[in-house]
Amino acid sequence: MVEDETDIRLFPVRRRTWQRIGEQLRLVAPMQNKKRTVFGAIEVHTGAVFHRLFERKRTIEMISFLTDLAQHYGGRPVLMMLDQASIHKSRALRDWLAEQPQIELIYLPKFGGHQDNPVEKLWWHLKGYVTANRCCRCITELVSVVERYFAHLTPEKVIQLVA
Asked: What residues pair up with 42 in beta bridges, in sequence order?
């Protein structure tokens, strides 16, 4: 598997759009920006995606994500490649991993994580086609949009995106 995290924000991101000449697209931003972090892992052989959303991106959320992942795979061994972010190498995570023999982490080269990690292409698609040019009234609505994206994402589409 390969794993990474990304942030989604309530403030709308504007990307290229089609519009009639003389009519400019207006996105009314909410008064306060909020964000959520998406943790995601792709099975490289099947294209299956496992994800969770959290309010923050810390070691405690990483451990929670890995706990859910281990339960999802029913104790089967999981070999996961990920970048060298501090939440992936913290002492608390190392201590937790010592008690989880079914999960093994392999780190991508330093400074190469964004180029070498296929999950980044999934995040680009999510942000470019799902959250861009969309103005949600609240963070709950944005989370619903992201959850719908994952619910309709097929393994075949994932393989197509990350290949």
From this structure: 2, 49
- The interaxial angle of helices 91-98 and 59-72, nearest 10 deg, is 20
CATH number, domain of 78, equals 3.30.420.10
* Residue at 21 is within a domain: no
Pairing of strands 78-82, 49-54: unpaired
- Residue 34, domain member (yes or no): yes
How many domains are contained in the chain?
1
pTM of the model as a whole: 0.86
The torsion region of residue 71 among left (phi > 0), alpha (psi -120 to 50) and beta comes to alpha
Could you give the CA distance from residue 153 to residue 86 in angstroms, rounded to a whole number? 29
Region of residue 97 (left: phi > 0; alpha: psi -120 to 50; beta: else): alpha
The tens digit of pLDDT for each residue in 19-78 reads 678 877 666 665 678 899 999 999 999 999 999 999 999 999 999 999 999 999 998 999
